[in-house]
């Protein structure tokens, strides 16, 4: 099953985590086959928020919400179950100074394809 591990931390604490340590962990879980994709994000100050309401586009500089911890990166992993995903997330270095949100991936493409395949043809 696929899980997304969202890395949150106070950007002021980012220097507490050597990039080398984060890259080493990334390499290890990629070699194990558990990491499908991962990236670190630029500062929250570089964020742009996009909304469309009643057909009108609104673009705002900055993040969606002011929070104590900001989204700093992500890991898309493969794990047998939530327990294994939690173990992988616990090893992500920023877990020591921030938090890792673990969420199962909703297989939306597969669900739609399955529903379409079950519809009778005309």
If classified by CATH, what would the architecture be?
Answer: 2-Layer Sandwich
**Low-confidence parts:** none
Proportion in β-strands: 25-35%
Q: Provide the structure class.
A: alpha+beta
Number of strands: 6
- The whole-angstrom Rg is 18 Å
Which fold name is given in CATH as the topology? Answer: Alpha-Beta Plaits
Q: Mean pLDDT, nearest integer?
A: 91
CATH class reads Alpha Beta
Q: Biggest sheet, open or closed, and with what strands and sense? A: 4 strands, antiparallel
Structural commentary:
This protein is an alpha+beta fold and 122 residues long. The chain has a single domain, classed as Alpha-Beta Plaits, CATH 3.30.70. 27% of the residues lie in helices and 34% in strands. The chain has three helices and six strands; from the N terminus they run βαββββαβα. The strands form two sheets. It has a four-stranded antiparallel β-sheet. A two-stranded antiparallel ribbon has the order 3-4. A hairpin with a 2-residue loop joins strand 3 (48-53) and strand 4 (56-61). The chain starts with a strand and ends with a helix. The model has no long low-confidence stretch (mean pLDDT 91).
Topology readout:
Layout: E1 2-9, H1 19-31, E2 35-40, E3 48-53, E4 56-61, E5 70-78, H2 82-90, E6 99-104, H3 108-118
Antiparallel strand pairs: 1-5, 1-6, 2-5, 3-4
Summarize the structure.
With 122 residues, the protein is α+β, with helices and mostly antiparallel strands.
């Amino acid at each position: 099953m696929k899980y997304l591990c969202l890395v949150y931390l106070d950007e002021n604490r980012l220097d507490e985590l050597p990039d080398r340590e984060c890259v080493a962990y990334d390499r290890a879980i990629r070699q194990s086959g558990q990491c499908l994709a991962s990236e670190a994000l630029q500062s929250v100050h570089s964020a742009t928020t996009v909304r469309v309401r009643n057909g009108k586009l609104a673009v705002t500089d900055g993040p969606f919400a002011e929070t104590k911890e900001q989204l700093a990166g992500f890991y898309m992993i493969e794990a047998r179950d939530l327990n294994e995903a939690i173990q992988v997330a616990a090893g992500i270095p920023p877990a020591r100074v921030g938090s890792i949100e673990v969420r199962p991936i909703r297989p939306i493409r597969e669900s739609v394809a399955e529903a379409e395949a079950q519809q009778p043809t005309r």
